[in-house]
Amino acid sequence: MEFAFYICALVAVLTTVRVITHTNPVHALLYLIISLLAIAGVFFSLGAYFAGALEIIVYAGAIMVLFVFVVMMLNLGNSVIEQERGWLKPQLWIGPGLLSAVLLVVMVYAILGVNDQGIDGTPVSAKEVGVALFGPYVLAVELASMLLLAGLVVAFHLGREESAGDVVSVRGGSPAEQAKRKTEEHV
């Protein structure tokens, strides 16, 4: 289990550095998801199966859904089709794919070698996690929930269309197209 712990930790550090250094948000998101999966691997190798499952379900799953939700709300239309085709090139997927394969191999090795000496992997129950989260760490949990709420409010404000007096429209297009759309909406 120590082998799994160290490899997952290394992958988490490398992918987190890639998240910070990437300028393209989609590329950074791919590395962020691999980083979250690696953190889940760290939790699994330490015996915190519940925390590892929550890491995958809540963070990796919720971040993907939130990202897709924001992109859908922005409704960018046909202007980004070529950019999306560029994101589907194999060069983009090689790094995250290789790191995911490393995580898969490490987790299979860890599952097959459960009786390994070292980190014992004593299971932590969901009740123990709940008592810890809403006991001494209740302030951190509440701050995290407020941060997530703030992110949701920002996503809503990014995606909404501005009122008639404002110049900027999230839907985009030329000013003539925007005026035509507004007159159609009022009719």
Question: How does this structure look, described?
Answer:
The protein has 8 helices and no strands. The chain is mainly α. It folds into 3 domains: 1-76, NADH-ubiquinone/plastoquinone oxidoreductase chain 6, subunit NuoJ (Four Helix Bundle (Hemerythrin (Met), subunit A), Up-down Bundle); 78-116; 125-156. Helix 1 (2-21) runs antiparallel to helix 2, helix 1 (2-21) packs antiparallel against helix 5 and helix 2 runs parallel beside helix 5. The longest helix is centred in the first third of the chain and has 26 residues, at 49-74. The protein is flat, with a radius of gyration of 22 Å. It starts with a helix and ends with a helix. 18% of the residues are buried. One of its GO terms (cellular component) is plasma membrane. One of its GO terms (molecular function) is quinone binding.
| Morphology | flat
How much helix is in the residues?
over 70%
Tell me the distance between the termini. 66 Å
Number of helix segments?
Answer: 8
| SS-derived structural category | mainly alpha
Instruction: Return the domain count.
Output: 3
Q: Architecture of the largest domain, CATH level 2?
A: Up-down Bundle
Question: Strand share of the residues?
Answer: under 5%
Rg (C-alpha, Å): 22 Å
Unreliably modeled segments: none
What would you give as the CATH superfamily of the largest domain? NADH-ubiquinone/plastoquinone oxidoreductase chain 6, subunit NuoJ
